Write a sequence for this structure.
């Protein structure tokens, strides 16, 4: 018999808080009931607060973030449209592959894994080619623990005089780190329920600017399930164009309450603090991050480069079977070379210390030359000081 908690420190799906899990435990209900719109319209309004979207829409589709990728492309672009993308990790590769398969003319720049969106390159491309209809940004590359600067991309687009649409994959960023769709000029912002929203997978969440809604009205591409028009028409009166996953909507209501009660600025500050603490732990082990410089550090997932004699896949298997702890393995080019610690969603300082403690044991079992307790101690020191600074005091040190 297994006693105690099985720990989940993958960068998605994340832990579902008990209050959210209980909220989903509801009997089936009539999604055409006369009072259903009261429930739906409040959710859609509060989602706009999370996306920091004053105008435009937030649309919900049954599916994963991948479904939101496809909905954004098929509604706002047409086959043959020229788009600008970059690849620097597993998920940015998948998005570029989807764009090509959906018939877009993709100008794609390959960047070393460990770096992010090449803003200067984007600006040069946009100046040289005004026919580019859309620019794509993977805000947080989950496979490498790399965050890119969305605001800098928008500034580059403006400097180049581009009127392209700005698409952002925010699956492992929205709901966790600072994201301001309207202020940053993002037209399509993609999220999923299973990460910062602390739900099971199953909801594709898409922030759509007014400009993107207008673009969708102009495109000739035939859509059905992913049609913006059908979804907006139904949402305007508080319904959906097809049967929605109502238990997930109840869970989303509970997760939105948690996020908005904490406040989105404080949510971002918490993730910033937790990310820095985990990185302090990795530094104390003497190991490197996949992210090659501080400008690329992600506050939701840390990808740790392993010594050449340590296999990341074996390390993750051992952590799971021996310590009942799940870490993310390396994907694509970094398979076996990194392991990933997810620190997003329903996590706090002690959660991260648990992750570091389990990782230390798994690293030592794998033969890594680290000092037992070093990472945990470094993170403890940082967290104590950071929390004391936040509350205007000093940590108590007893001798």
């Amino acid at each position: 018999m297994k006693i105690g908690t099985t720990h989940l420190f993958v960068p998605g799906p994340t832990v579902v808080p008990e209050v959210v899990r209980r909220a989903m435990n509801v009997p089936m209900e009539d999604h055409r009931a006369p009072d259903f719109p009261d429930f739906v319209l409040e959710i859609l309004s509060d989602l706009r607060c999370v996306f920091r979207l004053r105008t435009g829409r937030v649309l919900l589709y049954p599916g994963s973030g991948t479904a939101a990728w496809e909905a954004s492309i098929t509604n706002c672009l047409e086959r043959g449209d020229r788009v600008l993308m970059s690849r620097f990790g597993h998920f940015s590769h998948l998005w570029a592959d989807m764009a090509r398969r959906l018939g877009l003319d993709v100008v794609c720049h390959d960047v070393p894994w460990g770096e992010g969106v090449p803003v200067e390159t984007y600006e040069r491309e946009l100046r040289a080619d005004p026919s580019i209809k859309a620019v794509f940004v993977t805000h947080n590359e989950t496979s490498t623990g790399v965050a890119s600067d969305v605001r800098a991309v928008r500034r580059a687009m403006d400097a180049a005089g581009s009127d392209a649409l700005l698409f952002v994959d925010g699956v492992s960023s929205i709901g966790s780190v600072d994201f301001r769709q309207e202020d940053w000029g993002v037209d399509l912002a993609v999220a999923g329920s299973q990460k910062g929203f602390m739900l099971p997978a199953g909801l594709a969440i898409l922030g759509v600017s007014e400009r993107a809604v207008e673009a969708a009205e102009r495109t000739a591409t035939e859509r059905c399930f992913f049609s913006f028009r059908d979804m907006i028409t139904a949402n305007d009166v508080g319904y959906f164009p097809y049967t929605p996953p109502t238990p997930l909507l109840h869970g989303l209501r509970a997760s939105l309450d948690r996020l908005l009660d904490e406040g989105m600025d404080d949510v971002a500050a918490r993730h910033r603090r937790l990310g820095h603490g985990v990185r302090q732990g990795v530094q104390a082990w003497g190991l490197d991050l996949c992210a090659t410089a501080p400008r690329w550090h992600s506050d939701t997932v840390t990808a740790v480069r392993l010594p050449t004699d340590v296999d990341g896949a074996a390390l993750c298997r051992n952590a799971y079977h021996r310590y009942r702890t799940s870490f993310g393995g390396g994907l694509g080019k970094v398979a076996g070379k990194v392991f990933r610690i997810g620190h997003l969603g329903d996590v706090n300082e002690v959660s991260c210390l648990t992750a570091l403690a389990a990782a230390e044991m798994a690293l030592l079992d794998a033969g890594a030359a680290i000092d037992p307790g070093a990472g945990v101690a470094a993170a403890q020191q940082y967290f104590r000081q950071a929390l004391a600074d936040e509350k205007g005091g000093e940590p108590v040190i007893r001798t």
